[in-house]
Amino acid sequence: MTSKIKTWLGMAFGAALLPLHAPVAAQAAWPDKPITLVVPYSAGGPTDVVARMLAIPMGKSLGQTVIVENTVGAGGTIAPARVARAAPNGYTILIHHMGMATAPALYKKLSFDPLKDFEYIGQVLDVPMTLLSRKDFPANNFQELLTYVKANKDKVSLANAGIGAVSQLCGLLFANQIGVNLTTVPYKGAGPALNDLMGGQVDLLCDQTTQTAPVIKDGTRVKVFGVTTPTRLASMPSIPTLDEQGLKGFDVKVWHGVYAPKGTPPDVTAKLNVALRAALQDDAVKARIAELSSEIVPMDKVTPESLRTLLTSETAKWGKVIKASGVQAE
Asked: What start and end residues bound the annotated signal peptide (predicted)?
């Protein structure tokens, strides 16, 4: 065999091996560009606050920038629809709260299936809620609030962050439990709703402590009437629960999870899970979440399996509540 033939065969053999090795090298390099973390609600809202807390430490863990993108509208359903249609490569991911579980019952036509169109990365944190009013609202405690609302139900406005938002569900449960129908005022996000409450344009709002804790602690811009969980908040122990003030069994808290498009490779979702876990154990993140009266879930819940189980059970639970209430969006 001549040297030229040997050289040609060697080159051909090497070229034949390239397709086998190239994908392995590319896959091992993930991520090699910024990752977009999609938020279904407006900047400054509760879910946006959580996303921005996680973005920097997750980026450090992954070695790439994590960009927060607010994709708002349709009660928080546009963002998951966008992520469900995104390329399943880990570069577009979603953070969402319990709205993923309520959407199937709230919307007749949903362009995505929360249980089938995503890979699960893990749970994030649980957030209590608080019932607030504008600072100059006539009532000064919960019993006065009940008396005033029942006597002036046609005049009292109840803000929320939009159809399907947790603030809407919390407000709906409150109104149902006290036996009145209140005028609801939907906003395009929790931030605008809270701003109008502080500005005196609306009367009441039930929203997450990631949004409300700073203004409650400020003490000059809103009144607070109770916490929506069965136990008081460690960071604000003077605020009684709605349950202990007479609304027996009232229990609403907001859970959050991170998702990727269906078909995202397992090694990529595993890296995202590692980054999420690292972010939740970051000292600055833990301090900030505690400051906002929220709780990071135990690390054994920061798993795909735990999030899948939670979403399945919560979808069944809230589906019954929503259908019984008769509330539905187009």
From this structure: 1-28
Residue 292 makes CB contacts below 8 A (sequence gap 6+) with: 49, 127, 209, 210, 213, 214
Residue 164: pLDDT above 90? no
| Paired tokens of 232 | 């008081």
CB proximity list for 235: less than 8 A, separation 6 or greater: 213, 290, 291, 293
Q: Does 16 have pLDDT greater than 50? A: no
Number of domains in the chain: 2
Closest CA to 49 of 308, 254, 317: 254
**CATH code of residue 288:** 3.40.190.150
Return all residues near 269 (Cβ < 8 A) that are at least 6 apart.
90, 119, 120, 121, 260, 304
Half-sphere exposure of 83 (CA within 13 A, CB side): 35
Give me the domain span that covers residue 166. 128-227
d(CA 57, CA 88): 23
Other beta carbons less than 10 A from residue 128's beta carbon? 28
Query: Are 166 and 201 in a shared domain?
Result: yes
pTM of the full structure: 0.77
Q: How far is CA 28 from the centre of its chain?
A: 30
Question: Does position 10 have pLDDT exceeding 70, yes or no?
Answer: no
What pLDDT, in 10s, does the model give residues 176-201?
A: 889 998 999 999 888 899 999 999 99
